[in-house]
Design a protein that fits this description.
single chain; 68 residues; alpha+beta; Alpha-Beta Plaits; 2 helices; 3 strands; globular
Length: 68
């Protein structure tokens, strides 16, 4: 992944990453998911949500509101 993208959210439950991505998108922030879970054993690895560096602070604020 390019240097311009930073990790903003990570979960062992891919559906949580999808929700985070959708909430960010609804707020005008581009986000991508990289699923690093093992394809055979879903208990290993996480689904990670990345955003552009310039959107990191706003993204963290938004993610914090949906986590609580």
């Amino acid at each position: 992944m390019e240097d311009n993208w930073v990790l903003v959210f990570s979960s062992d439950k891919p559906w949580q990453a999808e929700i985070a991505k959708q909430v960010l998108s609804d707020n005008g922030i581009e986000a991508v998911i990289i699923n690093k879970q093992d394809s055979s054993y879903h208990s290993f690895g996480d689904a990670e949500v990345y955003v552009p560096k310039e959107s990191f602070e706003k993204s963290k604020e938004i993610i914090n509101t949906i986590e609580h």
